[in-house]
Amino acid sequence: MTLLAAATAVRLNAYVPYSRFKVGAAIRATSGAVHVGCNVENVAYPEGTCAEAGAIAAMVAAGDSRIAEICVIADSPEPVPCCGGCRQKIAEFADPSVLVTLWTTDGKSRTITVADLLPGVFTAAHMDRT
Description:
Layout: H1 3-11, E1 23-29, E2 34-38, E3 40-42, E4 45-49, H2 51-61, E5 67-74, H3 84-93, E6 94-104, E7 109-113, H4 114-117
Parallel strand pairs: 5-6
Antiparallel strand pairs: 1-2, 1-5, 3-4, 6-7
């Protein structure tokens, strides 16, 4: 199954009673395994959790820790960029050269690297005083 097919399928499971804006994400880990996530909203946190964060959580729960490729899909006129929180999470688990492909349900796409997604990323090296 392609990452796009996996992200498209999981997008349909999104729980979005407030925004009605479904997003699906699929990650290929460096192990080759594919992990998926969709956005989830709730009354106490109506902005919800993002699809990318869900896919990363699924990846870590399955025992993988490195991202090889990411695909995100939403029903929007243009490919939807990842939110700031997800950009930081992605940068934690992916090398700067990893490709992130953003899709619309109409077939438009945009592919960027993690480095382009989050320039000036905060890393553990910023806390190293030695």
